[in-house]
């Protein structure tokens, strides 16, 4: 397992995982996390053959299904979101979605015996639920907590907590604040696109 895998975890998308191909969990809030992990593991096992673009395409559908990407974008931007035009909101959502997927595709590039375990039962936190999991790689164990929010009849990931408490949303809001203040939505979209372009290079 490479150092970049742990760096990816610290982003949280980036980013963020369970025994491969377990039975579908009975808890509906757990199912999206398990589905994401199953695809992530399969992609890592094919990582070298797929290349970064192939990994991106393989991960894109499950991330779009399992993550509330519009909600995560809104929370990452913060109060400024409410003053943006609908066009800017859509552009930022597309840019952050691409960055999230590219982060996983770039950093989770190969498989070296990692074991991913997800708790089959979630815990309630207000209107949301929390799904706990851990990544085991050799002697290293990294816990991840996923905050799940209901969207219609489905539960989706709205935040990821590295080591159980480091919020990806809070980190991104802090990272984005200066760019938003100096250049607004257009500057943040450009920043995210530049970061994604860098991640998509083999």
From TrEMBL:
InterPro entries: Hopanoid_biosyn-assoc_HpnM, MlaC/ttg2D, Tgt2/MlaC_sf. Keywords: Signal. Residues 1-22 form the signal peptide. This is Phospholipid transport system substrate-binding protein. It comes from Rhizomicrobium palustre.
